[in-house]
Amino acid sequence: MNEANSDLTTRLVHHSYQPPSDFVALQPAVHKASTVVFPNVAAMRARRWLDKSSYTYGLHGTPTTYQLEERLCTLEGGKQCLLAPSGLAAIACVALALLKTGDEVLIPDNAYGPNKSLAEAELAQWGITHAYYDPLDLSDLAARITPRTRLVWLEVPGSVSMEFPDLPAMVRLCRERGVVSALDNTWGAGLAFQPFDLDGDGSRRLGVDISVHALTKYPSGGGDVLMGSVITVDQALHLRLKLTHMRLGIGVSGNDTETVLRSLPSVALRYRAHDATARELACWLQQQAAVVQVLHPALSGSPGHEQWQQLCGGANAGQGAAAGLFSVVIDPRFSQAQVDAFCDSLRLFKLGYSWGGAASLVVPYEIETMRACSRAHLQPGTVVRFNIGLEALEDLRADLAQALVAAFAAR
Ligand SMILES: *Cc1c(COP(=O)(O)O)cnc(C)c1O
Question: What are the coiled-coil residue ranges (predicted)?
Fold first, then answer.
């Protein structure tokens, strides 16, 4: 075909120019594809989507997604990784891959709320039952595992109320009973502890089967990308998850993947900075009259502090590691309206869900409506959760101080 004679549009679609192939830059390129082009029919017939030895279709991976998957395996100490368009989609993919009619899934009472909604409103429709267990009571989990139990969700620490469970003991129990354990590792982010090496000594004697991570939080770090990952160390389990992932058409965009790749190298530095400021503010809030309890696993007296010390205490040169997330319980003598006024009075802390970004966030919660198990370890009062961003400690402390005065000063 004489290119010069063909139609303009045809020439724009099939352009003859090819850039030199030896371009090297520091940042991975954004590869975007639905169609992946094969050099000949033999290569097309030989396509393999099961491993990363080639490319078949955009949904099954591009150089950009392969690179993020491999880096996330490095972050969490896993071997295989699947990407999903949100943390919740990653959770749903695990549930749909491993559960069928007649099975039961166990979920901690303090789990990320939408995981519970998935079980209550969607899995139930498929004849999959669920039960909630008390994350602070190993015997409760042990008693609830039956022959129908196919999946146990673990979360460290619990959403909003921040209880830190005995993760190694729970994983050991799941192993003994032959049940798959899936950890929501969004808080730990691969930085506070090693999900596949809970002894932390490189032995890999004890680890979760699956680690799910809402990359939306710390890996993205910007409050602008939704993404999730499902990481494993067992190839057979990975393939089971991958088949469901493929059949459900779960994929992520090249641009979003590149955004996470761009943020990932700074994740450990950011995590440490969020942690340091959060711990200072949590300690300071403990001294404030309106606050009856601070729920931060690194603070002694917080529910599960000893378990945090055991699992995360050795990280960060003996300082231990924690995310920049904690909650407080406001004295019940203050009304809900006053707690709302406190949140509204904050200027640097913005009202909004999610966490892990540079901006500090605040959310008041009605914990009574969220929990079925014992709340004996929680003081009565209204729970307010803070995500500590990257702002300066003194600015955040001053903001909290003025809002405490504005909302709770004696009147
Ligand atoms: C945010 C979050 C998720 C879900 O992530 P999305 O990307 O928002 O769907 C899951 N688990 C935990 C603990 C989270 O904080």
Answer: none
